[in-house]
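Holo prediction. Input below; ligand is magnesium ion.
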Amino acid sequence: MLESIIKHILVTEEEAQDICRRLGKEISRDYADKNLVLVCVLKGSVMFAVDLAKQIDAVCEMEFVRTYSYGNGTESTGKVQMLIDFDRPDIAECDFLVIEDIVDSGNTLKFLVEHILAKGAKSVRTCTLLDKPSRRKVDFNPDYVGKEIPDEFVFGYGLDLFEKYRDLPYVAVVSPEYLATLGL
Ligand code: IMP
Ligand code: MG
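Structure of the complex:
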């Protein structure tokens, strides 16, 4: 069943861990003397945020947010809403790093950066496992990127295919045959 849905594996379990080690080193160096707060964007970035956090030597805290982008199917309309937000009394002293699974149109991370800055954050930067730069609809570029990928729908390692397969240890590309059966 799963074999028929996978076109090919895009990021193996080993490569995902290599990415976490590489970005973890960079972030540890850049945030050595800052008050780092990782912001995990539920649900997709859970696996990446957890593995990345383990590779960060700098002292850090974690917050969790959940957003909702209005859209039909695979197209985002640009309107992003907060479903789960965080609050803390020391926001003005915190250097936030938002952790995302994938940047597509750029709407979600652009919105989140503005949202956290509006709370009065000291700084806000972004880190994504995957980036699809060819899909960008707004002027936004993440500060840390695990891997740039072409315009193909991917799932696994936190990313879902209709809410399923987030538990896979690797990222796979959906087969066009499977998408065709869904009329996509
Ligand atoms: P953006 O706001 O258009 O940048 O969309 C980002 C969100 O769209 C991600 O956090 C994912 O939830 C979802 N998304 C975009 N591309 C994919 C994909 O290929 N697989 C799974 N989810 C995706
Ligand atoms: Mg997401």
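The CA atoms of residues 89 and 134 lie 39 Å apart. That is the main takeaway for now.
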